[in-house]
Write a structure and sequence with these properties.
With 473 residues, this protein is α/β, with parallel strands linked by helices. It folds into three domains: 152 residues, Alpha-D-Glucose-1,6-Bisphosphate, Chain A, domain 3 (3-Layer(aba) Sandwich), CATH 3.40.120; 212 residues, Alpha-D-Glucose-1,6-Bisphosphate, subunit A, domain 3 (Alpha-D-Glucose-1,6-Bisphosphate, Chain A, domain 3), CATH 3.40.120.10; 85 residues, TATA-Binding Protein (2-Layer Sandwich), CATH 3.30.310. It contains 16 helices and 21 strands. The strands form four sheets. It has a six-stranded mixed β-sheet with strand order 1-5-4-2-3-6, sandwiched between helices. Strands 16-21-20-19-18-17 form a six-stranded antiparallel β-sheet. α1 crosses α2, α10 runs parallel beside α11 and α10 crosses α13. It is globular, with a radius of gyration of 22 Å.
Length: 473
C-alpha cells in the first residue's frame, strides 16, 4: 500500500531512496497541480527550482513533467538557485506559485519539496492541508508529459533567475556603499546555493569577498548539515580570525537563512541577529511598521516594539504562519529562530542574501564592528542569551505531550514560571522575561528544547530542566 505523505512546517522532506523517491515526488507534484486546478489556476505558469543536493535537478525535472501533464506551464531554473530568488521569480514571472526541490538545512541523506504561493511566500497551514489531501495514493492518477516533449512545445521554459532578482535587490540596499567600504568579508556557502552570490554582488571595488565551502558537495564535509549554527559553522568562525575578516556571513543549503560571526570569530546567534536586523530597520533606516515573530524567537523584539512604538505579532513556528501574517499586517520584518528573516519591499519569504546585505549596510552606516553593534543592541534592550538542544524522538508523541502538560513546574533554571503558552509547543514564560520552549519539530522526528534568558550562566540549568520536563533525561 502506498504510504501517506504528510506535509510539515515547509512542505515535505524525506530520506533519499527511502521515502523520498521519484514516485513520491510525482505524487506530491500531482497534489500541488490538483490544488492549483481547484483554485482556478489551470493553464497558469508555475516556477520550479532546486538546490545542490543529490539528484535535485532530476527531481525538479520530474516535477515539471507532472505539472505540464496537468496543463500547467513551467519556468524551470537552469541551475541550482537560492530559495529567495525562486520566490522572487514567482512575482517577476507572474506565476501562481512555485515548487522548490530542497531540504534546506537537513542532513545530506534528505531532500525536500517546498511549495510557495502567488506572493512567493510559504503557503498557509490550510493550504498545505489541502495539498496533502489531494496527493494521490494510486499512481495511475498521476498525469505527466515527457520532459523533452514539453520543452519542445514551450511548456517548459528554462530561465536564468539571477539578473532580475539582483536588479530588484539593488533598489532595497546600498550595494555600492558596501563595495566601497573596504571590508574583508568571509562567506561560508555551506556547499549550497548561496555560493558565488556575494562575490557577484560585491566584487569590483575596495571590499574583498572570500568564500569557503562554495562548490557542490552533497555530503557537506566539515559540518553535520548545512545549517548556520554551531558546530556546523566552527570552520568558518576559525577562518574568520585566521584571515582577520571583518565579518562572517553564513548561508544554509538553499540560502534562505543566514548566520553571522563577528570580527573576533564569535557567533552572533539567530535571536541576536533578528534583534540587530530589526534595530537596523528602526534606528538606522528610520522605518516603521509591524514586526512578525514566531514564539520561538527573541523577546528583544517586544522591547524594541515598545521603544519604537511598533506592533509585534507572534505566530506559530514556521513561515507558513509568518508569511501570511506579514501579508495581512504589511509587516516591516518577519522572522524565526532558525535564522530566516523576511523584509517589506521584498517577497514575504526568508532571504539569506538580502539579510546578509542589510547586516553589511548596518556596518557601513554606523561605522561599527559586529561585536560593537551587538553591544549597542544590548544597551537598548538588555543582554539576552539563547541556546537549543535537539533530541531524536521516536515512540508515543501523545504520552510526551501529557508528561509536559502534567509537569506544571513552579521554577525552571531557578526562575519563577509566570505563564505557559501552548500556541505551538509548550513555552514556559519566566520571571526575567526569558522563556523555555519544548516543541516537536515540523520537519524532522525530533524534540527541540529552546531557551532565552538574561542570565547566560543559567542556560545549562534551564535546558536541563526542559529535558527533564520532556522526559528526555
Amino acid at each position: 500500500m502506498t504510504a501517506k505523505i504528510k506535509f510539515g512546517t515547509d512542505g515535505w522532506r524525506g530520506k533519499i531512496a527511502d521515502n523520498y523517491t521519484f514516485e513520491n515526488v510525482r505524487r506530491c507534484a500531482q497534489g500541488f497541480a490538483s490544488y492549483q486546478i481547484k483554485h482556478g489556476n489551470t493553464g497558469a505558469w508555475i516556477v520550479v527550482g532546486y538546490d545542490k543536493r543529490f539528484l535535485s535537478e532530476h527531481f525538479a525535472a520530474t516535477v515539471a513533467e507532472v505539472l505540464c501533464g496537468n496543463g500547467f506551464k513551467v519556468y524551470l531554473t537552469q541551475e541550482a538557485t537560492p530559495t529567495p530568488v525562486i520566490s522572487y521569480a514567482v512575482i517577476d514571472k507572474k506565476a501562481v506559485g512555485a515548487i522548490n526541490i530542497t531540504a534546506s538545512h537537513n542532513p545530506p541523506v534528505d531532500n525536500g519539496f517546498k511549495v510557495r504561493d502567488q506572493h512567493g511566500g510559504a503557503i498557509d497551514p490550510q493550504g498545505l492541508l489541502e495539498i496533502e489531501a489531494l496527493i494521490p495514493d494510486d499512481l495511475s492518477q498521476i498525469k505527466k508529459k515527457e520532459y523533452k516533449t514539453a520543452l519542445e512545445a514551450g511548456e517548459i521554459m528554462l530561465f536564468e533567475a539571477a539578473t532580475n532578482y539582483i536588479t530588484h535587490i539593488e533598489k532595497l540596499v546600498d550595494i555600492e556603499g558596501i563595495k566601497r567600504a573596504g571590508f574583508t568579508i568571509l562567506v561560508d556557502a555551506m556547499w549550497g546555493n548561496g555560493a558565488g552570490w556575494f562575490p557577484r554582488l560585491l566584487d569590483g571595488s575596495k571590499t574583498e569577498v572570500i568564500e569557503i565551502h562554495n562548490t557542490r558537495n552533497p555530503i557537506f564535509p566539515e559540518m553535520q548539515r548545512p545549517e548556520p549554527i554551531r558546530p556546523n559553522i566552527d570552520v568558518g568562525l576559525n577562518k574568520t580570525t585566521e584571515l582577520r575578516a571583518d565579518v562572517l556571513l553564513i548561508n544554509d543549503g538553499d540560502a534562505d537563512r543566514v548566520g553571522f560571526g563577528d570580527e573576533n570569530g564569535v557567533f552572533i546567534n539567530q535571536l541576536q541577529a533578528y534583534g540587530l536586523l530589526a534595530y537596523y530597520l528602526l534606528e538606522v533606516r528610520g522605518e516603521r511598521g509591524p514586526i512578525v515573530k514566531t514564539l520561538s524567537t527573541t523577546s528583544m523584539l517586544n522591547k524594541l516594539g515598545k521603544l519604537y512604538d511598533v506592533p509585534i505579532y507572534e505566530t506559530g513556528v514556521g513561515f507558513k504562519y509568518v508569511a501570511p501574517k506579514m501579508v495581512e499586517t504589511d509587516a516591516m520584518i518577519g522572522g524565526e529562530e532558525s535564522g530566516g528573516y523576511a523584509f517589506k519591499g521584498n517577497v514575504p519569504e526568508r532571504d539569506g542574501i538580502l539579510a546578509g546585505l542589510y547586516f553589511l549596510d548596518m556596518m557601513v552606516k554606523t561605522g561599527k564592528t559586529p561585536s560593537q553593534l551587538l553591544q549597542i543592541l544590548f544597551e537598548k534592550v538588555g543582554a539576552h542569551y539563547y541556546d537549543r538542544i535537539d533530541t531524536a524522538f521516536s515512540g508515543d508523541k501523545e504520552s510526551k505531550i501529557e508528561r509536559i502538560l502534567n509537569a506544571n513546574p513552579n521554577e525552571i533554571g531557578g526562575f519563577k514560571v509566570t505563564g505557559l503558552n501552548t500556541m505551538d509547543g509548550y513555552k514556559f514564560e519566566l520571571e526575567d522575561g526569558g522563556w523555555l520552549l519544548i516543541r516537536f519539530s515540523g520537519t524532522e522526528p525530533k524534540i527541540r528544547v529552546y531557551c532565552e534568558t538574561t542570565d547566560e550562566e543559567r542556560i545549562p540549568q534551564i535546558l536541563n530542566d526542559g529535558l527533564k520536563i520532556a522526559g528526555l533525561k
